[in-house]
Each structure stands twice: as C-alpha cells, then as structure tokens.
Design brief:
alpha/beta; globular; nine-stranded mixed beta sheet; 396 residues; 37% helix
C-alpha cells in the first residue's frame, strides 16, 4: 500500500540575479505556496528548510530562518543540507513527519542567492575534503565534470555537439513560456554552436548558470487535505534519497577517481539509475506510466544521460529521443517542460523543490502554455554531491 501525502500548495520566487537575501526569496515563495494551498501561516505545524551554505549562519538553519521571517508561531522546524538534493531531502523530511503523525501540514522552503560564476566549496582549507581538493589540486570546476560526462557519451554512443544543442533548444522553448524562469528567449542550435567554449565539447549555452531563486511546497496528510476542500490533490507517492553502491566504476562529482572493481563486481546499474529505480519501486509505477519528467540538466549532455537513467530508453538512445522530439512539449514524454536548469539556472536548495512545483502545476492542469495534456504521473530526478540521491514521484 502506498503512503501518499498531498501537495496542497506550490509557490516560487522568479529566478535571476536580484542581489538580495535568500530569506527574502524564500519568504516570497512560502507565502505564494500558502496562498495556493488556501491556508494561513498560523495553520502550519512544521517548517522544513533546505539549507544554503552561501547564506552565512541563517543559511545553515534555514528552517528556523524562514519560520522567523514569516513570524514565530510555534511550529516545529528542521533544516536539511544535501547539496543539490537538499530540496528532495526536505520534502522527504516533511513527508516522514506527516506519515509519522507528527504534523498534519508542513511547509517546505528552499532558497539561494548564488555567487557569480562557478560554484566553489565553502571557505577554509580542508585537504581531506574531495570537493575542496578538486578545485585546489585539479582546478576541476563543475563544467569540467560535465564535459567529461559529455565526452563519455560521445565515445560510447557517438553523440555529437549537435545532439547536445538540441536539448538547449528544447528547454529554452519551454522556458520561454514560464514566468518564473530566468531565461525566457528561444535559442537556436546555431546560437549554441556560436557560444564560447567553456569545457570542450560544452559551450556556454550547453551549461546552466548560477541563479538566485526560491521554491516552496505545502504538504499535508490526505485527511487534512480533504478537510480543507482538496478532494483530489496532487500526491507525493515516493521520494528516493538513496546512496551509491560500492564500487562506483563511473566518475561521480566531486570525486576525482573511481573505485577499483578488481575484487568486487560493479552494480548492474549506475548510481543515477538506482535513484529512479528506488522511486519507481516505492511508487508502484514504471517509466511507461509517466506523463512527464523534470531532470537535472546541469548540462545538455547530462540531460541525455537522465533519459536513460530514468528508463525512458535504453543506454545510448537518449540523443535519438531528443532528435525525434519525443521529450519536447507536444512529444510523447516531455522532459523539463518547466524549461529546466537551462532556463532557470541553479539555486541549489530550491531546485529539487522547484521540480516538485512543476509536477504539481502540470498534474493539476495549471501549467498554461506549457501544459502536458492529461498529465497523471511525473518524476523528478537529480543528485547532490557526496552520493545524495533525489527523485520524487507525484501522481494525480
């Protein structure tokens, strides 16, 4: 038997570079989610904040920070950090509280004010920290890893930079229809090819920016939802936060080496594929039942990996899907109908929550020009540094 929780409300602060505090962004998103849910702040029994390490001490205690900003009213709080998977961990924490009977309604908020340029580790010297080491010793920024993954696709499957560019074209077309997106202009393959090389073979328009932004959802028990007039809400049916299985034979950010498989056979699936599999198993559905997916397109090439990891096609067939328009709006299984990180950029604690917001609006039939007709089930997928899985299955 599945253990559903209801998504009563979803809200966002538009993404961009606004030069203000993450608290301001998160408060805007939280109030939007509460309004969407039709409940007041006083009704919230728990707040779960997805942390930002770039916000100083308030960022490390985001749950309490947002509760204070909204006005102390006695709600319990929790704060979660799991890098890019922070939002999914926060959703899972809220869901656990609801299913355990600790709270009937929980507000989940993630917000960030990102630096200009590449993300880097928090300050200080930490020679035992692989994230610090890969910057200090190798100069390996995130796009360097994205480029390695892209080269791997090219070597194994024959993908080309032209295939990667099609992902940007697709996502930019969807993002142009999303009022919360930072980049809202269509992009051509010629524009991608003409943009500057950042980490060969990836160009500037192949990788996502760093952004300010926020997202929030209000989750509740099914009983609370019914009592408050939500007879048929969108439901979170599964959350996957799995970790990798030893040995990891494929390079995985931020590590700068793989495990030896001399003594132990590698797992039959990659870490990313295991994230989705766990979500499907918990939800009791398969990829053939999806109406849409929101995946972690840190780069155009990485989105193609996710097609395969979430079971939309066999390994090596991701580029074929994007060439045929299968994953575009109007295609058989739209991927990133929000516009993805290509259109939003990364606001790390918010992005996994933003994916849930998009599923919510799509499953309600409230996504306006980017609506996937008849959407009934969707999955989100991303991962955080140091082996944090992140996938949410939502259904209607």
């Amino acid at each position: 038997m599945t253990a559903d929780v209801a998504v009563l409300g979803a809200g966002m602060h538009p993404w961009g570079k606004w030069g203000r505090s993450f608290v301001e962004y998160g408060t805007v998103a939280a109030r939007a989610a509460l309004s969407d849910a039709g409940i007041g702040w006083q009704d919230v029994q728990s707040v779960v904040g997805a942390d930002t390490v770039r916000g100083g001490y308030p960022g490390y205690v985001a749950g309490a920070t947002f509760a204070q900003a909204l006005g102390w009213q006695g709600a319990r709080v929790a704060s979660v950090y799991a890098a890019c998977a922070s939002g999914a961990q926060a959703v899972n924490t809220a869901r656990a509280q609801i299913l355990a009977g600790m709270a009937d309604v929980v507000l989940v908020v993630g917000a960030d004010a990102a630096p200009k340029g590449f993300f880097a580790p928090a300050g200080g010297d930490r020679p035992d920290d692989p994230d610090w080491l890969r910057f200090r010793v190798l100069g390996a920024t995130n796009p360097a890893y994205f480029a390695l993954y892209a080269r791997r696709r090219m070597a194994l499957y024959g993908d080309t930079p032209d295939d990667f560019a099609l992902v940007k074209v697709k996502n930019a077309a969807a993002g142009a229809l999303n009022r919360h997106a930072r980049y809202r202009a269509p992009v051509t393959a010629e524009q991608v090819a003409a943009s500057a090389v950042v980490a060969d073979p990836l160009r500037l328009l192949d990788i996502c920016a760093t952004s300010d932004g926020a997202a929030a959802v209000v989750l509740s028990s099914m009983e609370f939802a019914r009592r408050h007039g939500h007879a048929d809400p969108v439901r979170v049916r599964a959350v996957s936060t799995v970790t990798p299985t030893y040995p990891k034979a494929v390079l995985d950010l931020p590590d700068i080496a793989t495990d030896s498989a001399v003594a132990v056979e590698p797992a039959p699936e990659t870490f990313r594929a295991s994230i989705a599999r766990a979500a499907y198993e918990e939800a009791g559905i398969g990829p053939d039942e999806l109406s849409l997916a929101e995946v972690y397109d840190l780069s155009t090439a990485l989105e193609l990996d996710w097609y395969e990891d979430i079971g939309l096609c066999a390994p090596g067939e991701g580029a074929k899907l994007v060439r045929e328009g299968t994953t575009a709006l109007g295609g058989r299984i739209p991927v990133n109908p929000s516009g993805g990180l290509a259109s939003f950029g990364e606001a790390v604690p918010a992005q996994a929550i933003a994916q849930v917001c998009e599923l919510t609006w799509q499953l309600r039939g409230a996504a306006a020009e980017r609506q996937v007709p008849g959407a009934r089930a969707g999955i989100t997928a991303n991962q955080g540094l140091f082996g944090h899985g992140s996938a949410v299955v939502a259904v209607r």
